[in-house]
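A reminder from the course coordinator: this example appears on the midterm review sheet, so study it carefully.

Given structure:
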C-alpha cells in the first residue's frame, strides 16, 4: 500500500486508501452521464438496484414512524422491534435461530461487512474472495488493512468456487472466506450439494470464518431453493456471519438498512466499530424495515417472476450474437457474458478490441449502451449486464449490442 500525496495542495491520503482508486464502474457512469447530457440516447445497464419502487405499505410505515416521533437516536445496532423482525425472518426463511445479541443492523449490508472487517482484521490478515466478485469487497478488505486473496471461479464450474481451489488458498493468515449467492456479478447461486464441499473445507480449517452475503436471496429463479451456509451446516454457525438486507428484496436501496446474524462476540465487536462511525442506522428507515420484514410478502414472488422474464430475454438475445456466449444465471439481476469471441476484431474505425474494457468502451461510445467489463470484477474477458430495467429498454439495448457486434470486422488470424 502506498500513500498518495498531491504536490499542489500537500494533501496526503492514508496508506490504507492509497491503493483504492475511483472505481471503473463510476468512470463508466460518468462517461454515460456526459453522453446523455450531449443528447445521446444512452441506455445504462450498470445499476446494482431494482428499478421498482419501494412498496407503498413500507413507505406508509415510515411516514407513521415520523409522525409518532421516532426521530431520535435508537439502540446502537438496531431497535428491539427491528431485531425481533430480523430474528423472525431468519427463523421463518432460513431455519436459523439468532437472539437479539446475535443480530446487528447497519446502514446497508455494505456497512455490516465493513464493520466485520474493521472489527476482525489486523494488518496483513487475508480474506479469500471468490472472483469474479462485487468490487467493494476487495476495497473494504484493504481499508481494514487486510489482504484480499482472489480465487478464480471458472465459468465451467458455473462461476462457483471450487473446494480444492479454496483449500489451496487457505494460509495461517486467512481470517475469512466471503461467499455471495446469488452472486453479483455472475448471478450464479449455490445449491446445497454445491455448497457442501466448500463447507467441508471450512470444517477442516477452524481458524477460517465465513461471511455469507445473502443480499440477493429473494432473487432466485426456476424454483431453485435458496440455501445459506449456517442453515445447512449448523456446526459452522458459530463462525459464520449471515449478511442480508432490505435493499434488493424490497427495492429499498436508498433507505440504507442491512443486517446480519452471527456469534455474539463478533456482533459486539462490530457494534464498537459502528458506535464510533455512524451510530445507529436511520430511525425512520429501521421502522420501514420492520414493515418490510413483517408485512405482506407477496410482492417478492411477483418481482422475482418479472426479473426471471428479463433474465431470459437478455440471455437469449446475447446467445444469438456471434462472438458472445452467456450462461443462464440462477439469480440476482445480472448476466455475466463472455466476449472472448470478439477479442482480436476491429471496429469500423480500425480500433482493436483487445480486452473486455475496449469492447465496453466501444459499446458505450459508438452504440450508446453502458455495461461493465468483467475485468472490474476480477475475471476477463466478460461483461456484466444489470437487467434491473424495463423489458423495452432491455430489448432495445440487446438489439444495439447485436448491431455493434455485427459491425466488428472478423478476427484476422496471424
Ligand atoms: N452485497 C452485494 C453483493 C451487493 O451487490 C450489494 C449492493 N450492490 C451489497 C452487498 C450492499 O447492499 P446494501 O449496502 O445496499 O445493503
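Designed residues:
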Amino acid at each position: 500500500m502506498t500513500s498518495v500525496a498531491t504536490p499542489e495542495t500537500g494533501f496526503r491520503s492514508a496508506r490504507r486508501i492509497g491503493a483504492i482508486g475511483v472505481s471503473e464502474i463510476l468512470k463508466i457512469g460518468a462517461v454515460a452521464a456526459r453522453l446523455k447530457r450531449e443528447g445521446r440516447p444512452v441506455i445504462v445497464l450498470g445499476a446494482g438496484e431494482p428499478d421498482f419502487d419501494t412498496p407503498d405499505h413500507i413507505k406508509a410505515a415510515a411516514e407513521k414512524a415520523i409522525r409518532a416521533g421516532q426521530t431520535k437516536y435508537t439502540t446502537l445496532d438496531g431497535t428491539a422491534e427491528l431485531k425481533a423482525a430480523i430474528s423472525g425472518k431468519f427463523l421463518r426463511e432460513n431455519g436459523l435461530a439468532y437472539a437479539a445479541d446475535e443480530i446487528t443492523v447497519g446502514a446497508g449490508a455494505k456497512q455490516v461487512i465493513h464493520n466485520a472487517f474493521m472489527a476482525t482484521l489486523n494488518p496483513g490478515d487475508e480474506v479469500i474472495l471468490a472472483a469474479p466478485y462485487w468490487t467493494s469487497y476487495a476495497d473494504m478488505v484493504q481499508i481494514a488493512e487486510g489482504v484480499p486473496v482472489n480465487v478464480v471461479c471458472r465459468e465451467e464450474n458455473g462461476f462457483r468456487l471450487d473446494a480444492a481451489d479454496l483449500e489451496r488458498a487457505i494460509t495461517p493468515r486467512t481470517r475469512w472466506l466471503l461467499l455471495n449467492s446469488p452472486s453479483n456479478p455472475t448471478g450464479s447461486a449455490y445449491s446445497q450439494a454445491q455448497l457442501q464441499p466448500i463447507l467441508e473445507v471450512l470444517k477442516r480449517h477452524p481458524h477460517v470464518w465465513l461471511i455469507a452475503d445473502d443480499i440477493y436471496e429473494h432473487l432466485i429463479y426456476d424454483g431453485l431453493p435458496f440455501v445459506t451456509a449456517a442453515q445447512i451446516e449448523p456446526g459452522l454457525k458459530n463462525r459464520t456471519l449471515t449478511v442480508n438486507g432490505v435493499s434488493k428484496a424490497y427495492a429499498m436501496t436508498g433507505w440504507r438498512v442491512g443486517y446480519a446474524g452471527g456469534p455474539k462476540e463478533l456482533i459486539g465487536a462490530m457494534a464498537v466499530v459502528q458506535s464510533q462511525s455512524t451510530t445507529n442506522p436511520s430511525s425512520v428507515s429501521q421502522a420501514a424495515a420492520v414493515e418490510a420484514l413483517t408485512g405482506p410478502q407477496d410482492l417478492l414472488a411477483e418481482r422475482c417472476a418479472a426479473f426471471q422474464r428479463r433474465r431470459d430475454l437478455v440471455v437469449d438475445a446475447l446467445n444469438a450474437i456471434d462472438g458472445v456466449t452467456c450462461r443462464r444465471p440462477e439469480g440476482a439481476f445480472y448476466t455475466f457474458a463472455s466476449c472472448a469471441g470478439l477479442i482480436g476484431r476491429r471496429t469500423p474505425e480500425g480500433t482493436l478490441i483487445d480486452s473486455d474494457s475496449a469492447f465496453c468502451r466501444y459499446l458505450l461510445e459508438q452504440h450508446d449502451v453502458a455495461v461493465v467489463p468483467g475485468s472490474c470484477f476480477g475475471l476477463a474477458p466478460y461483461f456484466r449486464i444489470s437487467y434491473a430495467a424495463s423489458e423495452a429498454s432491455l430489448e432495445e439495448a440487446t438489439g444495439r449490442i447485436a448491431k455493434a457486434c455485427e459491425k466488428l470486422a472478423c478476427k484476422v488470424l496471424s
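The pocket of 4'-deoxy-4'-aminopyridoxal-5'-phosphate is lined by residues 48, 108-110, 134, 180, 184, 213, 215, 245, 247, 253, 258 (CB under 6 Å). Residues 70-294 form a domain with the Aspartate Aminotransferase; domain 2 fold (CATH 3.40.640.10).
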